[in-house]
Amino acid sequence: MRPILIFLLILLTVPAWAQDLGTVLDANREQIERPSRQTIGPVIDKIAASGDGAVAFLEAWGDRSVGLTGDGRFAILREETATDAVTGAAITAEIDMLRPNSGVRGLIAAALVPAQLSDPDPARRRAALDALGRNAAPEHLAALRGALDDPDPDIAAQKLRLERLLTIGFDTDPAARVLAIESFAGNTASDVQARLNPLLATTRFAGDNLPAGANIARDLRVDEDITRDEAYRLLVETGLARARLTDEAQKSALAQHIENGRVGGVPVNELNDMESRDRAYAVLADQGLVQPAATAAEVDAALEANIFADVYTEPSAEVTDAAREALNALQTRERLAQGTDIALDALSLASIYFLAAIGLAITFGVMGVINMAHGEFIMMGAYTGYVVQGFIANRTLSLIVALPLAFFVTALAGVVLYRLVIRYLANRPLETLLATFGVSIALQQLAKNIFGTQARPLTAPDWLGGSISFSEMVSISTIRVAIFVLALLFLALFLFITKRTRLGLNMRAVTQNPGMAASMGINPDRVAMMTFGWGSGIAGIAGVAIGLFAQVTSELGQAYIVQSFMTVVVGGVGNIWGTLAGAALIGGLQKWIEVLNPANTLAAQTWMILFIIIFIQFRPRGIFPTRGRFVEG
To answer: Residue 366: what pLDDT?
Structure first.
């Protein structure tokens, strides 16, 4: 007797609806065959609580993979294989598939959430969270709250975050929703904004009195916040006023009912104002000849008698206030992030211009030579890097070799150019400009003959291929960071050479007063040659750096020569700090103009050149003018 009593006691303690899957399916067969969203909910709950096989059945039912055999058995069809939904036995009989509608499938998905969120497999729990994030419903909130405890810390954090997002959208307690909104303070994630934005959605209200408890976004004043036509259209749409004809429609209707020179008893020659036309039209409407329409006086009276407002669709003012405050904070953070991102881009661009211009600043500052072939030295450096990568497969090692080799190649080219051309054109700036321009064209054609017209790849090492992110919206590529560091290194190297070496002392002496320098035993010609070679070599290194993110072609240098000259002129000829300031100014100005006019880069460059022209009218010797012969001249 004892075992029987214990079994009966267990049966009494089990809820009445906690039956096995087969019993539940048999008891609710008709509702499962023809489910209705209004009545199927309790049946789905019973199936979910029926134990083994329930989850598999619900998943298949939601996927429209459940059917009925001729003898009344429920079958699950997967990949053309049919099995009994209760026993799992194979089925070969013909199956009539069930087709639950989207509403029923939504209830099934909600019933599956607790099981999926507590599934032993972490992958299935993550998949359930992803599905909820994409398509959540109010009924999912309670299920998610019941599964917040998770052995995986990452999944537990995802569940808590999703619970707060669903609380914002679906919780019935305004205080809980406000707390959930405040918990995302400073979070600029797109899913957070997607939850907050609908809370501030509004509808236009028109009527004599605002609805009780309406959450008003703002009152609308006719002719200030809303036009008369729009306000009256709202009254017509809500049935509070008759439609108003347009002047053209009214005139057309009146013209169709002219009899003996009159319309509605009003002489035609008197229909030159709106009041007369309204009077005539009202007579025609009373006679049933035209559709009744509001007169101008009725429109004015209706607008005076009613109020207009934007009303939040969200009824709780506490929730909308919290959402508006959070979104305002997010917008502030976004603007700050965008500004920071633009500033980083401008700093990166300034670093590139500084590298491209520093060699030009050295040659122009010491010698006063306008070297139009400077851009081609940049191009030669980039092609040197490309050639080195053809021999050395390791990208890091090839870059280490390419930088000094590019310096040597372009420095040698600079020395040759000086010895063959520049030295014979001293103090003849126009002839020097024309000669170096011819050299520029010759070098471009030589590059085309050797490497062709197609762009050549200069691949960066993998460790330069990523980016450094400061937030969701602020990031900068690693290559640009490397170029910035390289620019700082060359700034330090330049300062060391000019301040701590004999070559630097000679350069400064020749820059300030070449005649006095020569009388002190300094060979200005030798100093100029070394300076020209050094400046050209730095251009070659800049070419390698630029080639890592730009296309290496024979026209590569032409894209930077104009900005390089502007950088030197704006900063101050021959002054390294001026070159740095000029690069920062040119890079920042170009980036901000591109932001204001992103669709037209040519217009951005035009505005930048106009700014430079205006700038040099007030500072003709640049930001940091150099003392010496350029001042005196």
So the answer is: 62
Pairing of strands 475-477, 467-469: antiparallel
Strands 262-263 and 202-207: unpaired
| Predicted local confidence at residue 136, as pLDDT | 79
Distance CA 208, CA 571 (A): 67
Q: Classify burial at 419, counting beta carbons within 10 Å of its beta carbon; exposed 0-12, middle 13-18, buried 19 or more.
A: middle
Q: How far apart are CA 163 and CA 169, in angstroms?
A: 10
Contacts of 512 (CB under 8 A, 6+ apart): 627, 628, 629
Would you call 220 helix, strand, or coil by DSSP? strand
Q: What pLDDT was estimated at residue 382?
A: 92
Whole-number CA gyration radius for the chain: 40
Give the pLDDT of residue 44.
Answer: 84
* AA letter at 272: N
Ranges of residues in the chain whose predicted pLDDT is under 70: 1-19, 365-367, 471-473, 511, 573-574, 597-605, 625-633
| Tokens coding 516 | 């006095």
Structural contact between residues 290 and 281, judged by C-beta atoms closer than 8 angstroms: yes
Which residue in 537, 535, 536, 548 sits closest to 481, CA to CA?
Answer: 548
d(CA 375, CA 447): 13
- pLDDT for the residue 19: 65
Token reading at 439: 């050299």
Q: In sequence order, which residues have a C-beta less than 8 Å from that of residue 167 and are 6 or more positions away?
A: 141, 176, 177, 180
CATH classification for the domain delimited by 334-632, as one of 1.10.3680, 1.25.40, 3.40.50, 1.10.3470? 1.10.3470
Sequence-separated (6 or more) residues with CB below 8 Å from residue 391: 398
Question: Taking the domains of the chain in order of start, what are their residue ranges?
Answer: 14-172, 203-312, 334-632
Are the C-beta atoms of residues 578 and 589 closer than 8 Å to each other? no
Q: Tokens in use for 476?
A: 């900068």
- Report the DSSP pairing between strands 81-84 and 74-78: antiparallel
Whole-model pTM: value is 0.60
Is residue 47 within 8 Å of 58, Cβ to Cβ? yes
Q: What is the pLDDT of residue 604?
A: 67
Sheet holding 307-312, edge to edge: 202-207, 307-312, 216-220
pLDDT the model gives residue 631: 41
